[in-house]
Amino acid sequence: MFFSLCGIPGVGKTTVKQYVLKLALDAGLNVQDAHRHRILYELAGVSSKLQYIQLPLATRRKANIALVDRLYALEVNDPNGIRLRDDHFVYPYSDGSYFMRPLHPMDYFYLAGILILTADPSTIITRRIGDGLALRHDHANDTLATATAHQFLEMSTACQQAAILGIPFRVIENTSGAVEDAAREVLHFIRKPQAI
Questions:
Q1: I need a labelling partner for 38 at 20 to 30 A (CA). Which of 21, 52, 59, 152 fits?
Q2: CA-to-CA separations, 99 to 14, 25, 102, 166, in angstroms, rounded
């Protein structure tokens, strides 16, 4: 089974996930990284995020579709494992369109819960600048308003999908300097999934 850790770029998913995996290991829990990005880059024929974002939009869309099937193949092969997947429910493309994560039939069997990581939009924009995300063509025109709207759409879509699937979800605020607190909340949810 897996838990989806979602949120818009710059909210801190990767950092929180790294802390969660460390906390789980320290607590003797076998929580694994789903390695979503590594698999995505492999499917697209690249080896880094920089190479991936330079690919044509059609190539990235095709890789994202193939990624879902690959991740579910992992679930079928190891149904007792617990994986934490860095996910997006909504993602803006540079052409103004959005990727919206569709429900997959396998979600009903393997998706155990959704964690929605949020942060203040100004913090998100600051993180994007620090991570070099603001230089990417799909984030070049980001503003507080677009980050706010994107975060709202991400939360709405994730919550709606959790409701349709009948699985628990939780919104976790990832404020500056509180990454370990957010990671502890994520791990607590994995141990006892319930909506709050």
A1: 152
A2: 20, 33, 9, 23
